[in-house]
Amino acid sequence: MKKILSFLFIILISFSNIAYAKEFVATSEYDAYNKALVYLGEVAYGNEFVKAEDKLRRFEKPINIFLQGKLTKEDEAFAKQFVADLNRKVPRMPLVSFTKKDKANVIVSYVPLKDMKKYSPYYVENNWGFASYWWNNKSEITKIEIAIAIDVTNQKERNHLFMEEILNSFACPNDSYT
Q1: What is the pLDDT at residue 96?
Q2: Whether this model's pTM surpasses 0.85
Q3: Domains (ranges, CATH) in the chain?
Q4: Contacts of 174 (CB under 8 A, 6+ apart)
Q5: Which residue positions in the chain have pLDDT lower than 70?
Q6: 145: CB partners within 8 A, 6+ apart
Q7: Which of 18, 42, 141, 153 could be disulfide-bonded to 157 (CB atoms 3.0-4.6 Å)?
């Protein structure tokens, strides 16, 4: 009998608290977090121009960049600073460095808009920056070719395009609009 009364007492206490318990309502911070996760999925698993598998592709080996074309001293300085920042701020990412063309797995070409397709084979017209990338059967990125237009952009725009195409091709191939 004591067991039954104890059980009923616990049930009564539990149900009496229901009247005072607040219904769980997602806060704006919680909603923002969930929206960010969904958006990350769209950016990381999507592809801007091609319907792709729902897989995250990334580099597993060191990333070796070669810059070519008609880049300015400012283009080169910005690229080197950005890569230094990436290496410092993203410690688990494979090391990013600059190398000779024959050792590069990322080639960034600064070229006139009319020549973009020569340097990024899957180029879609009217884009001032574009990246084409390849991966193996383990979803490891093996090669990237980036083209950045020099004749329709200013320095600030080229810097932005370098960052965008590098970050998009390293892991998040769909453009982010934040």
Answers
A1: 87
A2: no
A3: 2-45 (no CATH), 63-170 (3.30.379)
A4: 42, 43, 44, 45, 46, 47, 48, 168
A5: 1-30, 32-55, 57, 171-178
A6: 106, 107, 109, 119, 120, 121, 131, 132, 133
A7: 153
